[in-house]
Amino acid sequence: MANLPYILSIFLLTLVFLIVFIFNQKKRNNVLQYRELNYSYFYTLPVNQKIELVNLTTNNMSNFRCESDVILSPGYFLAVEFMKKCSFLHRYPILKIKSSLTESSQYLDSVVNNGKSKLWINLASHSGISLKELSFFAKDFLLTSSCAELIYFPQIDLNKHKILILAPHPDDPEVSSYSIYTSYPQSTVIVTITDGLNTANRNFILTSQRVIESLTIPQFNGISFRNTINLAYPDGNLKILYENYRTSPMDKKSSRFNEYRNLNVSPYMPTNSIGPCWISLINDLVQIIQSYKPTIIITPHPLIDSHFDHVFTTLALDEALQICDYFPSAILTTFVHNKITELYPFGPHNSEISLPPFPQHFNNIQLFDSVQVAFCSEDLNHLKFRAMEAHSDLRTIRFPIYPTFSSAFLQLKIAAYNSLLFHPNSPPNSLFRRFIRPHELFLTITSSATFQNICQHAKN
Questions:
Q1: Are residues 421 and 26 in contact, defined by beta-carbon separation less than 8 angstroms?
Q2: Phi, psi of 270 (to 5 degrees)
Q3: What pLDDT is recorded for position 424?
Q4: How far apart are CA 45 and CA 334, in angstroms?
Q5: Which one, 78, 232, 274, 418, has least CB within 10 Å?
Q6: E strands in 301-379
Q7: Cα separation values, 374 from 126, 176, 222, Å
Q8: What is the DSSP letter of 364?
Q9: Any idea what DSSP says for residue 160?
Q10: CA-based nearest residue to 366, from 309, 446, 460, 459
């Protein structure tokens, strides 16, 4: 018993150390995982957007119900203003939505804590149910108003359209648009812009593997080999092409460029390219648009997606559409890499996805005309997981072929880090956590003026 005070002292010191360590790590990761903290959720909606004000029934501004008998369908969002509470136990505030038939959860931004923010509650999981039958349970945030906005974004019937998916990299169609291309395989063409040979990726091998993956993986999911194309522009270089190689090709990339393009068999594959340069990319897109004549184009949002290959894929599309003097019925924009944080979408993989944060200085720009919601069933998400895992760059290499003590210790540290500070068993930036969700979400642009204005701001 004489040693008891020493044991208690050591225990208390260890506990204090762990608490300080966790708080410091949380603070550190807020800085590292967020590129900037001046961001917003207050989108500028189209002037003709129909908004219904809904009164909320609540006692403590935490749990609430809506006084509206609107029957929900995909495209309904409930916009509420809230304030995040300080909490040690829950890193991400959570909103649970329940009815007698269904239940869903939506995770909020963990950093927003200064003043009010806006929460866009995606109600698509509760389609067919009256809004007043839903009960909302907020954890670690409070409403700041007893009134909410019920917004309906009309959904496009994609059965009536020819779809063109522009994928900056080989895995992007599976990550962002899997539910759409598997639902409409006969009327979808997938065009991958780059060869995917990113030497920064530890899974990288200098072969045509990723080009072949982009051409074949969609075939396992219903897309004909005639409807997949890889243009083989050098991965990570679209911005460089735009700035330095507008009319003359990058010589050092030309040999593999032609070799990889020869792997294509699609009749929509452009011919007579002069090599990897910006004008060649524009001409490729012009030829594809003129021959296929898509009425729906899926491409990254250049003001929300942060990856330069994603941004310049859409800027190339903008130039091609102007040359063609053509605009589709709608452009559905994706956002695999968020300008604010790679942690978006927040929460575990089975939680709902909602509208992303965007840089605050874009507050006065109309970033979309509508929102398209595509349903992903559990069975479809199992297939989506397998399709994503088939891409060599997305596989997690947990241990090398010949493990050492240091490699095992490193994996142990990573596991502890992820379990303590993020969602258990999920690396924070994992695409499997972020994009295997009940729905896929697209910001829809139906006006050429809106699209050109967005692209002009992206160039600036």
A1: yes
A2: -65, 155
A3: 42
A4: 18
A5: 274
A6: 330-334, 358-359, 370-375
A7: 14, 10, 17
A8: T
A9: G
A10: 446
> H or E element: which one contains 408?
helix 405-421
The SS3 of residue 196 is coil
φ/ψ of 205, rounded to 5, equals -135, 135
Instruction: Report pLDDT digits (tens) over 282-326.
Output: 999 999 999 999 999 999 999 999 999 999 999 999 999 999 999
- Show the CA angle centred on residue 165, arms to residues 161 and 242, nearest 5°: 135
Helix (H, G, I), strand (E, B) or coil at 213: helix
What's the predicted TM-score (pTM) here? 0.89
Between CA 79 and CA 311, with CA 30 as vertex, the angle to 5 degrees is: 70
- Tell me how far apart the alpha carbons of residues 74 and 158 are, in angstroms, rounded to a whole number: 14
What's the maximum distance between 2 C-alpha atoms anywhere in the chain? Answer: 88
**CA end-to-end span of the chain, whole Å?**
71
Residue 117: beta bridge partners? 82
Q: Please report how many Cα atoms fall inside a 13 Å half-sphere around the Cα of residue 2, on the Cβ side.
A: 0
Low-confidence ranges of the chain (pLDDT < 70): 1-2, 16-32, 86-91, 112-115, 199-205, 252-255, 396-403, 406-407, 410-426
Residue 253 pLDDT: 60
| Residue 298 per-residue DSSP state | E
Q: What is the pLDDT of residues 418-428, one digit of tens each?
A: 554 444 446 77
d(CA 227, CA 307) in angstroms, rounded, equals 25
Enumerate the H helices of 233-361 as residue ranges.
238-244, 251-261, 278-292, 308-324
Residue 252's pLDDT is what?
A: 63
* SS3 call for 81: strand
Give the whole-angstrom CA distance, residue 21 versus residue 12: 14
Q: Which DSSP symbol is given to 72? A: P
Q: How far apart are CA 446 and CA 428, in angstroms?
A: 34
